[in-house]
Amino acid sequence: MSSKKWESNEEIQIFREYLQIPTVHPDVDYTDCVEFLKRQASSLNLPVDVVYPAVKTKPVVIIKWLGSQPELPSIILNSHTDVVPVFREKWTHDPFAADIDEEGRIYARGTQDMKSVGTQYLGAIRLLKASGFQPKRTFYVTFVPDEEIGGELGMKAFVKTDYYKEMNVGFSLDEGATSPTDVHHLFYAERLRWALKLKASGTSGHGSLLLPDTAGVKLNYVVNKLTEFRTSQVQRMAKDSSLSAGDVTTVNLTQLSGGVQSNVVPPSFEAVFDMRIAITVDLVAFEKQIRDWCEEAGGGIEIEFFRKEPLIGPTNMDNSNPYWVALKAAIDELDLKIRPIVCPGATDSRYIREKGTPAFGFSPIINTTMRIHDHDEFLQADVYLNGIEVYKKIIRNLAEV
Ligand code: ZN
Questions:
Q1: C-alpha of residue 175 to centroid of ligand 1, in Å
Q2: What pLDDT digit, counting tens, does each position of 72-125 carry?
Q3: Domain match, 198 and 155 both
Q4: What is the spatial distance between Cα 53 and Cα 44, in angstroms, rounded to a whole number?
Q5: Which residue is catalytic, options 11, 113, 147, 148?
Q6: Does one domain contain both 29 and 151?
Q7: pLDDT band with cut points at 50, 70 and 90 for residue 196
Q8: Centroid of ligand 1 to alpha carbon of 93 (angstroms)
Q9: Is 147 a catalytic residue?
Q10: Which protein residues have a CB closer than 5 Å to ligand 1 (ion)?
Q11: Residues 219 and 112 reside in one and the same domain
Q12: pTM value?
């Protein structure tokens, strides 16, 4: 098979053109991306708006497909336009050339995470429009910046705007994950992101002495307790194969600082932990446990949770959620295998769920090696094209809710 077969496909051409726009961190320039998306909107004969919810360099592009009953709550088809940095020397293809190899693999940063999904939504709408389909509900295909750096100036700011309020959003679809098997992952919730800084203070003095209550001994006590907790989570995962990464709590020591030279016991040490907390954890008890450990260590430890997301309820997967019923019907008709899981990381869906709006994360990428944020990220052209068909069915069903 030759790559020529794919190069002449119009949908593949659109996808590759999007991939070739280097919306890569840090300091992303979104100008060409906005122009590209405006052209896509006009080729679909759909109105497009560009709003800047936070600053002039962070555009949100919104393509609107008006429903026949626009008073009904609308549906968001969201994707982020930014991609994470690359280590060029580790790639076998230029990460922004979108080369197609003989097997039909398209190589580029963003093929899996998640430019594919953005242009697949548009490809599906193109097919539906061509067939004369008219949605009952209004769809907004939203393209947001900065998801990869937390979405502070992107989706987080956008959901606070009057523009968003007027969209009257009832449901949202956003990114899922790449699956190496034929089973799709469906995110219905996300773990909570916490970050903890501990500053231990204690007796300082000469490095040759056994001084009481040193910062090092105190901090070591708490680090050990958190490490034991971490081990308990590793063991839970090992014992129960039904658990996925989103079902356990991760605690990782990510920064350590302090000290001046080897023979001086310093007056303080600092440690930073990244924590991703399972949605089943009792947050009050969890925090109290950490505070208790700091007291047991001898006190004098400043505790700062500098990131502390509240619990955001998961999206219901039962008959009380009509969008789920419609999505499930599409999944069944397409004979897709689905595994609902808690997203182990974080996506922009959390800002939508936080507003009480149901949201799922889903990417139609199966039988593909997971290369999200990795070198040689790629997507098979036929997997991409099949994904357009999947969205066609899903969008058609959601439109009729
Ligand atoms: Zn992503």
A1: 6
A2: 999 999 999 999 999 999 999 999 999 999 999 999 999 999 999 999 999 999
A3: no
A4: 25
A5: 147
A6: yes
A7: very high
A8: 21
A9: yes
A10: 113-114, 175
A11: no
A12: 0.89
Residue 78 sits at the vertex; the CA angle it makes with 73 and 83, to the nearest 5 degrees, is: 165
* Eight-state DSSP code of residue 271: E
How many angstroms separate the alpha carbon of residue 256 from the centre of ligand 1?
29
> What is the tens place of the pLDDT at every residue in 218-238?
999 999 999 999 999 999 999
Residue 15 lies in a domain: yes
Strands (E), 227-326: 250-258, 264-265, 268-277, 301-308
Q: CA nearest 48: which of 58, 59, 38? A: 38
Left if phi > 0, otherwise alpha if psi is -120 to 50, otherwise beta: which for 312? Answer: beta
**Domain region containing 205:** 193-308
Whose tokens are 């009481």? That residue is: 212
Here the CATH number for the domain that contains residue 287 is: 3.30.70.360
How many angstroms separate the alpha carbon of residue 371 from the centre of ligand 1?
12
- End position of a domain, from candidates 280, 308, 336: 308
Q: Please identify which of the residues 11, 82, 148, 348 carries the catalytic annotation.
A: 82
Ligand 1 midpoint to CA 147 (Å): 7
Calculate how far, in angstroms, residue 289's C-alpha sits from the geometric centre of ligand 1. 33
For residue 259, report the distance from its CA to the centre of ligand 1, in Å: 38
Written as six digits, the tokens of 2 are: 């030759």
Residue 334 placed within a domain = no
Q: Mean pLDDT across the stretch 288-301?
A: 97
Instruction: Identify whether 82 is a catalytic site residue.
Output: yes
- Mean pLDDT (the chain) is 96
pLDDT value at residue 374: 94
Average of per-residue pLDDT across 139-149: 97
Q: How far is the CA of 372 from the centre of ligand 1 (A)?
A: 8
Q: Pull the structure tokens for residue 197.
A: 């800084």
Residue 137 half-sphere exposure toward CB, CA atoms < 13 A: 24
Distance between CA atoms of residues 207 and 80, nearest Å: 52
Model confidence over 32-67: pLDDT tens digits?
999 999 999 999 999 999 999 999 999 999 999 999
